[in-house]
Design brief:
The chain is 33% helix and 29% strand. The chain is of the alpha/beta class. The chain is globular.
């Protein structure tokens, strides 16, 4: 397996008035193809910032970010938007579904953004993805008509819609009950094992930690350790 994500001495600073805040401090690691990787740490540790930098939603203040062999920190916004649409599926903590589109239409939209313009094909594949997350009977519902767990499942279907090589998931079970959380974990596992995706997840959920090939511990913006999942302890 080859390296698909490579961070070298990455730092991220934000200006707060006349002061600066370092969200990430000299982070270096590599993630291999088809791995499930967990970013573990308390709130404020820098996990979401790290996901944003991997996806190109934010640029580092210092350091180098290479994803699928391409250097992202010097790329312009138009290139990064296209790169994400083609290569990355992002599962946001707040779902970020388009409120005026149905579940199936939200999935189809991702295909269109990735440059797939065959409407018949897109509709068929979107229906298959909606069915794969167990929502065939909710495909024509708007996000406001869906539960949190159902919205998260739509978000996962959307993240798979462009057949990305990388899935980034930000606290995917954070707002869900135990039963729905287990369903989401199973969907993420299948994305890696059955579809060959590289999956990077921020979480506090030990059940997700159990899926991981590697756990990266973050604390106050610094990489504290790299552990096997069976060694995680509080």
């Amino acid at each position: 397996m080859g390296c698909v994500i490579d961070l070298a001495s990455v730092s991220k600073e934000y200006l707060l008035g006349e002061n600066s805040f370092k969200a990430l401090d000299d982070i270096s690691f590599q993630i291999e193809e088809k791995q499930v990787v967990v970013l573990w740490g308390p709130s404020g540790a820098g996990k979401t910032t790290l996901l944003n930098i991997i996806s190109g939603l934010e640029k580092p203040s210092h350091g180098e970010v290479r994803v699928l062999g391409l250097s992202l920190e010097d790329s312009d916004e138009d290139f990064l938007a296209l790169f994400r649409c083609i290569n990355i599926g992002f599962i946001f903590q707040s779902y970020n579904l388009v409120s005026s589109l149905t579940a199936r239409e939200n999935v189809e939209l991702m295909m269109e953004l990735a440059g797939w313009h065959d409407d018949g094909r897109n509709a068929r594949l979107a229906s298959e993805l909606i069915r794969s997350v167990g929502l065939s009977d909710r495909a024509n519902h708007l996000p406001a008509q869906l539960s949190w767990g159902e919205q998260q499942r739509v978000a996962i279907a959307r993240a798979l819609a462009n057949d990305p090589r990388i899935i980034l998931a930000d606290e995917p079970t954070g707002n869900l009950d135990s039963s729905t959380g287990r369903e989401i974990i199973e969907l993420l596992r299948r994305s890696s094992e059955e579809h060959g995706k590289t999956v990077v997840i921020t979480t506090h959920d030990e059940r997700i930690a159990g899926l991981a090939h590697v756990i990266f511990h973050l604390d106050k913006g610094r990489l504290k350790a790299v552990d096997r999942p069976d060694r995680i302890r509080h």
